[in-house]
Amino acid sequence: MERIVIKVGTAVITEKNVIAKERMMNLVYLIAKLRSKYEVILVSSGAVGAGYAALKLDKSKQIGKKAIAAAGQPILMSSYKRMFDIFDIDTAQILLTEDDFDSRKRTKMFQEIINAHLANDILPIVNENDISSTPEQLFGDNDQLSAHVAHAVDADMLVILSDIYGYFDKDPSKYHDAKLFKVLDELPEGVLDAQATPNDPFATGGIVTKLKAADFMMKKGRQMFLANGFDLSATESYLMEGKHTLGTLFTPKGSIKKETKTKKGGA
Prior knowledge:
By secondary structure, this protein is of the alpha/beta class. 40% of the residues lie in helices and 20% in strands. It has helices at 10-13, 21-34, 47-51, 62-86, 104-119, 142-152, 207-219, 233-241, 256-264, and strands at 2-8, 14-15, 18-19, 38-44, 90-96, 122-128, 157-162, 167-168, 180-181, 183-184, 223-228, 248-250. Helix 2 (21-34) packs across helix 4. The longest helix has 25 residues, at 62-86. The two termini are 15 Å apart. It has nine helices and twelve strands.
């Protein structure tokens, strides 16, 4: 059974400082179906967005953001638990920082914990530990965290669900003739040097952090699929049926021809 990491962003999982229940349920339902074919690990943002309704502090200040995240993380996890309980899926919370990937001992520990969860049919839900860490210990966004998790647990693919339909040659919200890149095995020159511009005030990423995650995965010989988290039909079609309608597949260099042939064959 292949192993995948699914990362969902703040813009998808929250709306107006509360959990977006319908979108979360759609995600939970998709994961329930995917578990028949894959081992699934979920990386979920949303703690700060969910916590702001309970604690309206200045999130631009370090202590304010940490306090909001501390209030929001149990709200996020309890929402997931209620919904996954409908499908009899047990969940576990794992909070990580960048330091967990710099120490062989610490990395091995969370690898074994995640493997134990999966072996016992438990869904690991990962988030960055904003609360007890310093800025130097944080990735700063869950896109890059999810890529490092995917590599550390030997996942076959990272799936990032966001508020965009994939990677375009230019901003589709500004240019009607923007074209979607369906498959890429290398990134256009200079795109990683641009400034991250998240659309949601509680998000920390943007297209640049997603491209950095894709670059990391491709260099590690793994794939990443970037798709829309508001409409999960394209992701379900790709992961369950091998039909690539929307979304961008980032694949290791030199593998595009092989990937195209595979998809034409319906595998």
